[in-house]
Known about the structure:
Helix content: under 10%
Number of strands: 5
Mean pLDDT: 92
Shape: globular
CATH architecture: Beta Barrel
Number of helices: 0
Number of domains: 1
Strand order of the largest sheet: 3-2-1-4-5
Radius of gyration: 14 Å
Low-confidence stretches: none
Distance between the termini: 33 Å
Amino acid sequence: MASGKGKIYTFVVYHQAFHKAFETDLPYVTAIIELKEGPHLLSNIVGCDPEEIECDMPVEVIWEDINEEFTVPKFKIVAEPKEHS
């Protein structure tokens, strides 16, 4: 089972909706997430300013209910733990 944690491998910010269903989400971020366990997953980054996103930022999964039968994984940026000196 995957932990749901990883980092942004690469991403793109969309400023034009390629389907009417996404018009209210503009701008939105689609990213390839490198999970800690190794696999890569195509998803969205949510809950942050798209202009602040960078590759290698740590992320964790959140679940968005589309309806009663369908839930999709999306990711949010998480603060990196501070190193103690």
